[in-house]
Amino acid sequence: MSTIAENIAKVGVRIREAAQASQRDFSHIGLLAVSKTKPADAIREAFAAGVTDFGENYLQEALDKQTQLSDLPVVWHFIGPIQSNKTKPIAEHFAWVHSVDRLKIAERLSAQRPAHLPALNICLQVNVSGEASKSGCSPDQLSALAHAVTQLPNLRLRGLMTIPEPTDDVTEQRAAFARLRELQQSLNLDLDTLSMGMSHDLEAAIAEGATWVRIGTALFGARDYSNS
Ligand SMILES: *Cc1c(COP(=O)(O)O)cnc(C)c1O
């Protein structure tokens, strides 16, 4: 087995054990492999080991890899910050966007979604930790944003996403993820997705209801940003 295949198996065990610990069905928890900064060959290896969904943060890098991997039926998710002049290629080349945090971006994605493609799946990114530097709408803004997004014809609002402040304290991890779940429930919309949990906190996220865990380092190893 390749290292990546071994890592996928280990993460699969972590997901299964976390699901079991909270009496959840592990088939309701998707593994989104976060492949930013990693080469197309790493995605190819992960795909061969059974992973179908990949998350990318940087548009040009993602488009380059999509070209190199056009022979594979990969499901592409955009999970990075979105500038409004980049919405068109995102609307054209992804199945999901997890990082929508303002209406202007959602409106542009809907208007630019090609007619021959199904509705673009959307998660609204919420800043549950209140750090000034992080992207995501504030909990106060969420309800108005969510209800407006449900009115856009070419988007399908699926749920919420968050990247909490990193902490090793499991109680704090769970509190942040519980907050996202409660915010989702308070919207009273028909939503089925909570995109939360990364390599270091996937167990806490699953305990609080994650349906996508977004895993990079635990699958592909540490990232090297020195070339970017
Ligand atoms: C990089 C990234 C991840 C993966 O983080 P790891 O700690 O490497 O698992 C998940 N979600 C988002 C939005 C990211 O940017």
Work out the number of β strands. 8
Unreliable residue stretches = none
**Into which percentage range does the β-strand content fall?**
15-25%
Q: Strand arrangement, largest sheet?
A: 7-6-5-4-3-2-1-8
Helix and strand sequence: HEHEHEHEHEHEHEHEH
Instruction: Give the biggest beta sheet.
Output: 8 strands, parallel
Which secondary-structure class do the elements indicate?
alpha/beta
**What is the level 1 CATH name?**
Alpha Beta
What gyration radius follows from the Cα positions, in whole Å? 17 Å
Based on the model shown, name its key terms:
228 residues; alpha/beta; TIM Barrel; eight-stranded parallel beta sheet; globular; binds pyridoxal-5'-phosphate
Can you walk through the features of this model?
The protein has helices spanning 3-21, 40-48, 59-68, 87-93, 103-112, 139-149, 170-186, 202-207, 217-220; strands at 30-34, 53-56, 75-78, 96-100, 120-125, 155-161, 193-195, 212-215. By secondary structure, it is α/β, with parallel strands linked by helices. β6, α7 and β7 (193-195) form a beta-alpha-beta unit. α4 crosses α5. The longest helix is centred in the N-terminal third of the chain and has 19 residues, at 3-21. It binds pyridoxal-5'-phosphate (PLP). The site of pyridoxal-5'-phosphate has 12 residues, from β8 and α9.
Write a brief caption for the model.
By secondary structure, the protein is of the alpha/beta class.
Topology diagram in text:
Blueprint: H1 3-21, E1 30-34, H2 40-48, E2 53-56, H3 59-68, E3 75-78, H4 87-93, E4 96-100, H5 103-112, E5 120-125, H6 139-149, E6 155-161, H7 170-186, E7 193-195, H8 202-207, E8 212-215, H9 217-220
Parallel strand pairs: 1-2, 1-8, 2-3, 3-4, 4-5, 5-6, 6-7
